[in-house]
Amino acid sequence: MEGLRLAPPQPTLLHRTETVLRTSFIGPHFTKKCIAHRIRVSVSKPTAEVSSPTLTSSEDTVASSPSQGFVVAPSDRPRVSANSLQYPSGYLGAVPERSVDEGKGDVKNAMEYLTNILSSKVYDVAIESPLQLATKLSERLGNQVWLKREDLQPVFSFKLRGAYNMMAKLTKEQLEKGVICSSAGNHAQGVALAAKKLGCNAVIAMPVTTPEIKWQSVERLGATVVLVGDSYDEAQAYAKKRAKEESRTFIPPFDHPDVIMGQGTVGMEIVRQMQGPLHAIFVPVGGGGLIAGIAAYVKRVSPEVKVIGVEPSDANAMALSLHHGERVMLDKVGGFADGVAVKEVGEETFCLCRELVDGVVLVSRDAICASIKDMFEEKRSILEPAGALALAGAEAYCKYYGLKGKNIVAITSGANMNFDKLRVVTELANVGRKQEAVLATILAEKPGSFKQFCELVGPMNITEFKYRCSSDKAAVVLYSVGVHMVSDLEAMRQRLESSQLRTYNLTASDLVKDHLRYLMGGRLNVENEVLCRFVFPERPGALMKFLDTFSPQWNISLFHYRGQGETGANVLVGIQVGKSEMEEFIQRSESLGYEYVLVTNDSNFQLLMH
Ligand SMILES: Cc1ncc(COP(=O)(O)O)c(C=O)c1O
């Protein structure tokens, strides 16, 4: 594919923040040339001599390089894949083994958590968010589903609670020296707003890939934004190093008692607001700060109420850690719900969760999209994926256990939606609700077969249809249908099958939904074609680096990218690699450093593209 060998005209996947170099706080491993493109630095003056900055337990993941730069030291936690722990949607898994006496005795300073939550000053900046009944959803599920509207907070998420709670406890001297944090999302806005309220200087380190809209909203709150590093880990390493150098207080996003206590005020409000017996509270889990805080409060005052974590099935670091009885690190993490895309949960948050939470429900990307739609229909609000996670978990749990007549609470934790993501959300929401199915049927390539197919599909509403003649004998059509009742879909499948029209349900395949449905019609049997899904980092040069790795030695036979508002660009690539060169190909793919997975043998690829 010749076009890819040329310098790319900045396709969407390479869009980036305009960056301007103003001063010289730069990791030494960047060359002058790349600095101008990669780092936007507005450095506030260092303020004082060293005072011990408040650093989190994950401090040990950062090391200084000999040349005073920042590097991210590899974590020594066991590395596991998200796939190693999967269970049906709605099932309460990862139920922790309590270390002591049903979880009542082992967490140190349990009373301290309770009293601190009760006396927290978060209301200087946060509101007591309403607890609202979701009427339509309640009716549909046969339970009273209550929404704890943290998406209505100033800055549109609960994160300001924890940040403010920690910062409000700093001494005058510490506040004068300023604070620093690293975040590409809601924590950044929380820290910025808290700093504004407390009149202190805040520096926020964000990866260079952070969308402009996010870093601008932080800057508008008066904080100094530093765009630095390609990943969150690098931005964090920078922030921790600078905290030491400038004696700023590092404000961690989740793993600090004061942050956890601040988030715990959500639990306190629920207990106060809820009339009548409460069955369970569903809480989205990233690093675990929100759920640890809620559990620390609720399990002390109402131990009968279940506190249930919800994670995306490809970002299940807490479920895996609880399952293994120790903190583990995900080898890769799904980025769709970016607010909870965490590879490793916190140390303090893990200890609290192991003692106090009831387990973790896992949900799919489709289910999260369906819950965003539910919320829109319910309250005309648009939640970000992490913000809708708990609702998806609550719904799945009610269905899985056939729960009826109970009060359940789901925390709608944030509404900072990346607008570009809405396209994917609308595409997948009906699939997530099981109201749309993606199918493929094999027809004979002869006159009249299309008409016969349409007659058999009958009354089903077709929402998508793809067909292109590609062989003399058989044709594959890819299509989606609206589904009112599962039995309608099954009846249609039987009609097709009884007329010898082989039909496949592809609804569960992300490969089909993300890529193959857009590639239909380009079928050709390409020799030695290896198919891979790569996650390209969204930075200038990512595509050229990829091409330098494989081209011109191997021909690129397929390339598909569709922006989904994610941090990494999800790209499907076909490359022609001879069998004898496979080992070298794998080595090169590894050295490229982008996450990738081989999908050549995926049966849906074989069906649709061969
Ligand atoms: C919207 C939203 N929901 C949930 C979470 C998860 O919170 P925690 O990291 O405390 O588990 C975050 C974290 O930033 C978030 O932004």
Automatic annotation (TrEMBL):
Catalytic activity: L-threonine = 2-oxobutanoate + NH4(+)
Subcellular location: Plastid, Chloroplast
PROSITE patterns: ACT_LIKE, DEHYDRATASE_SER_THR
Keywords on record: Amino-acid biosynthesis, Branched-chain amino acid biosynthesis, Chloroplast, Isoleucine biosynthesis, Lyase, Plastid, Pyridoxal phosphate, Repeat, Transit peptide
One BP term from GO: L-threonine catabolic process
Residue span of region Disordered: 46-68
Short name of any one Pfam family annotated for the protein: PALP
Enzyme superclass (EC): lyase
GO function term, MF aspect, one: threonine deaminase activity
GO cellular component, one term: chloroplast
Recorded metabolic or biological pathway in which this protein acts: Amino-acid biosynthesis; L-isoleucine biosynthesis; 2-oxobutanoate from L-threonine: step 1/1
Biased composition (Polar residues): 49-68
Cofactor or coenzyme needed: pyridoxal 5'-phosphate
Domain ACT-like stretches: 437-508, 530-601
Enzyme Commission code: 4.3.1.19
Family the UniProt entry places it in: Belongs to the serine/threonine dehydratase family.
Protein name: Threonine dehydratase
Organism: Gossypium tomentosum
